[in-house]
Amino acid sequence: MAVMMSALQNQLSEAQDSGKLQGQLRFEESLARYTTWRIGGKAECWYQPHNADDLQAVLKILPENTAVNWVGLGSNLLIRDGGVKGLIISTNGVLNKLAIQCADEYEQTSGRAKCLITAQAGVACAIFSRKAAHLGLNGAEFLSGIPGTIGGALAMNAGAFGGEIWRHVVSVTMINHHGELISRKPDEFIIQYRKVEARKAATINKGETPGQEWFLSGVFSFEKDVQGLKQSKLEIKRLLAKRAATQPTKQANAGSVFKNPDNDYAARLIESCGLKGKSINGAQISEKHANFIVNNGAATAKDVETLINEIKATVLKQHQIKLETEVRVIGEY
Predict the structure, then answer these.
(1) Which sequence spans correspond to the domains of the chain?
(2) pLDDT, tens digit, 9 for 90 and up, residues 143-197
(3) How many CB atoms lie within 10 A of CB 188?
(4) Residues 6+ apart with CB under 8 A from 178
(5) Candidates 194, 243, 268, 328; catalytic one
(6) CA-CA 20 to 30 A from 237: which of 56, 71, 161, 312?
(7) Catalytic residue among 235, 256, 286, 305
(8) Is the pTM above the cut of 0.85?
């Protein structure tokens, strides 16, 4: 029996058949394989662009109000069991160009040279960190502990071990829902702890809808120190060892679930409520780190979301603190 295709599926299928699209297009694709929690429903349309030009092409042909979501390595993301309407853009393994340009001469006073790293949204943070370390650049080591991509890191001001990505941003290239490219500077954004918002979106008149824009690439500044080329590699090794010792890296998880409140830690609050190790079906608060929820093999997105809501309610009741989720939740129930 033939399955009825949606209008969006028909439109994208026709575009690919005519040669307008060069990437991989799939319908009703299970998203569980694309998330680090290994759970999630199906995508109405899933697209992995061939390159930036191809990404522009697919965005240009989308109907005006099509919902678009991006998935990189699938960390920091909960996809509900009912799946996702609209288009999922997958950057895993694509949009991964990275280039490094360093000044020819070192500053006489510091013995250091400024280097610029240009990276597309699909570059894995760990690869970015290793490439920087290979050249002896200081400051990118913290990215080795972030299991995501540069696009996701820019969108949420990702950080770890005291570092944050937006401290190094020189400029970013955005792509909008019309497939147009826009260059922006950091002062065009409101940058906060695990949150980034375009100033134009924050100040737009009531009743208006800001056009969607997504991070396509970024230019980042780091210093190269001739006196310590091995320092970055040693620091990465230390941070990865610390991560393995304190986080459930061998179990399916999405990273930290909650943002740390001011002057406190989400993990401490959760553990103080006696919730460490609590399970709802296959979803469990990690015994190793209370701000992680692991999938023990049979969890559903509903299990995880129910556990998240229970943690919020319990911490609010016992500590009068409202925890804010760090993970992004998308899709239908």
Answers:
(1) 7-90, 98-246, 252-330
(2) 999 999 999 999 999 999 999 999 999 999 999 999 999 999 999 999 999 999 9
(3) 14
(4) 59, 60, 211
(5) 194
(6) 71
(7) 256
(8) yes
If you search the block for the tokens 């013995």, which residue do you land on? Answer: 111
Q: Is 18 a catalytic residue?
A: no
Catalytic residue check, 326: yes
Second CATH level (architecture) for the domain 98-246: 2-Layer Sandwich (3.30)
The token pair at 55 is: 């990404």
Tokens for 93? 């393994």
Amino acid identity, position 9: Q
CATH of domain 7-90: 3.30.43.10
Per the rule left: phi > 0, alpha: psi between -120 and 50, beta: everything else, 161 is: left
Is 279 marked active-site? no
Domain 252-330 annotated CATH 3.90.78.10: yes
What's the pLDDT tens digit per position in 33-68?
Answer: 999 999 999 999 999 999 999 999 999 999 989 999
Q: Which of 213, 223, 305, 326 is catalytic?
A: 326
Residue 332 to residue 305: CA distance in whole angstroms: 12
